[in-house]
Sequence to fold (311 residues):
Amino acid sequence: MNLNYSDLCTVFIVTYYSNEKIRYCLDSIENKYKIIVFDNSGQTTNKILIENAYSNVNYIVSKKNIGIPRAYNFGLNIIKTDYMFTTQPDVVLRRGCVDNLLNAALSYPLAGILSPTTFHGDKKEYILDGDHKALKIDKINKKIIFDNKNMNKKIYNKIPEGDFCVEGVTGTAMLIKNTFLKKIGGWDKNIFSYWEDMDICARMRMNNFQVIKVRDAELDHSPFSSHNQELSDSVNYFRNWHYTWSSYYIRIKYRNYIATLIYVSKIFISNLLKIFFYYFLSRKKYLISQAKLYGLIISILGKPSYFRVKK
Fold:
């Protein structure tokens, strides 16, 4: 491996009340790499603890929660290395992950995004849909076709045997070539959370840059566990609100009006019925349906993705 890889890449992690969880992620990253942690929860105490424990970490505390894309755009503007490796507090990298990604990046000069092979949960299972997405991109008309029927079910959970090009990868971890990302305009700042990963992948592909899964780079991901568990109910509401807001927004952005109509009809009707059904039966399911419905309505009205977790 090239000992100067650390000059090529800066690690950037966005955190929100991750407390001690972030340490498992940091411990898995070779200390030769400079790491920037961007704290959206404003935890100044964590800054002191983390920077004292990790000499290669610069812990930045945001005055307010600005979301994922805006935080990444902040990183894009201050990072001086050729590549930016983004990941999450609930991720643990396997040995040589970043090195192997950089090794692949130097072999694929048109790659705008390179992503590790992701294993999920305590059993470390491989789930294709949690690793990359079967997007269909119309490069001529600059549209995403929201249709996963082309997913080959026979290989749904088969671990890939080598590197391969895809249309979209999840935001769990990405090695990004900064010059290419700047050419496509960075992350969409209108999105607060969700679909920002598919959006930059789509724009990379539309601009003839590659998105590549790298087999030799591996990580373990524990989904939805990066935050303090005391906030689970609030974060769950937040997650469903923003997912539906972004799902409508991204369909409109790429002018996929038929998919938008189908999505709106399905989400609106099903969750309206669920709100009445679960009102007396399950407060948790009632709130999830409420969050989805509210997020959709706000997005349809063209209002910003303003909802924030109440602490």
